[in-house]
Write a structure and sequence with these properties.
Layout lengths: L1 E3 L3 E7 L14 E4 L15 H19 L3 E2 L3 E6 L2 E6 L4 E6 L2 H19 L2 H11 E10 L3 E4 L9 E10 H7 L4 H5 L12 E4 L6 E6 L3 E5 L14 E5 L3 E4 L3 H18 L3 E10 L6 E12 L2 H10 L1
Antiparallel strand pairs: 1-2, 2-16, 3-10, 4-5, 5-6, 6-7, 8-9, 8-10, 11-12, 11-15, 12-13, 13-14, 16-17
Helix pairs in contact: 1-2, 1-3
């Protein structure tokens, strides 16, 4: 693609030497399997079941740290005299006893993990994972090139699920600035709480709720600016019926954006530009091109336009 005027020539072309976005500092982790393509993040699992079982065990360990005497409601540890009993909750019997509390907790974890991984279906393991993490399926369309999505493709012959992208809820809480409901609540028509962000029909920007009244809210539309750039005029009273959207399920949106970026990489939809200036000889009129600027690694042509217009 080329554009020019009297003074400059701009060339935009695909950038074939781009770094995989999976090398970036992502929140999500992509686990993929495919017989012909190397996809997603590096891993050592030999199949999807091994991944699910390992991830469930890891999450059970996290749960046990929060509740040391219970594992997923399946096994619990109770002290009896100078011993600790590991009890099967559903069958109501003592599986074993030990004087070592740490060992008792480890045994409870092992029994729970063994029971889940041996008898649970993939869907049941995914249900357990969903209690502690946001996990989305990954689908690949493979026909004269490959493209990836977190939603199924319409063509069943050339598309198949190839993995998942996931991130623990705890990491979302620690590394993003969203509220609990903004991250995990899927209801975008709920009543917002203080600190949550909303959209109205007369503004393209999100505003942050700073006060809640009976039928309205005080909303700060300068919430994301530095303090010196904020204006009290941009704190507006918004009625309930003026709210068109309450920020919701940002955790899934973050993961979906990572998938979209990776999909552009897989499709080779990455661009660079080179800007040259036309230098005309005053004597003979011969024109030579002099390099001005270049940059590569844009994931849309619109990004190039915005960068050039701001420079």
């Amino acid at each position: 693609m080329k554009a020019e005027n009297e003074n400059y020539i701009l060339r935009i072309e695909r950038y074939d030497d781009a770094e995989s976005p999976r090398e970036w500092d992502n929140l999500g982790t992509m686990f993929c399997w495919h017989s012909r393509h190397v996809l997603g993040d590096k891993h050592n699992y030999y199949d999807h079941r091994a991944f699910l079982e390992s991830f469930v065990r890891e999450l059970l360990q996290v749960e046990q740290l929060a509740e040391p005497t219970s594992v997923s409601g399946l096994f619990k540890v109770e002290q009896r005299g100078n011993k600790y009993d590991v009890i099967d909750v559903s069958l109501k019997y003592t599986r074993c006893s030990t004087k070592n509390l740490t060992l008792a907790r480890e045994l409870a974890l092992n029994y729970a993990a063994e029971e889940l991984t041996e008898y649970a279906t993939d869907a049941e393991l995914l249900s357990i994972i969903s209690e502690y993490a946001v996990i989305l399926p990954l689908y690949l369309y493979d026909h004269s090139g490959i493209t990836m999505s977190s939603s199924p493709f319409s063509c069943q012959w050339d598309s198949v699920q190839v993995g998942w992208i996931f991130c623990t809820k705890e990491r979302f809480r620690e590394e993003t600035g969203y509220t609990e409901d903004e991250l995990f609540n899927t209801d975008s028509s709920r009543h917002p709480a203080i600190g949550e962000r909303i959209k109205t029909a007369d503004s393209e920007w999100w505003g942050q709720v700073v006060s809640v009244y009976k039928d309205s809210y005080a909303v700060d539309f300068d919430w994301n600016k530095i303090p010196s750039a904020r204006s009290s005029k941009n704190i507006k009273i918004v009625r309930n019926d003026e709210i068109i959207e309450v920020m919701s399920y940002q955790a899934a949106e973050i993961l979906e954006e990572e998938v979209e970026t990776y999909d552009k990489y897989l499709r080779g939809d990455i661009y660079g530009y080179e800007l040259s200036e036309k230098i005309k000889c005053n004597c003979c009129g011969h024109v030579v091109l002099e390099y001005v600027d270049s940059c590569h690694g844009y994931y849309s042509i619109q990004d190039i336009k915005e960068n050039l217009s701001s420079s």
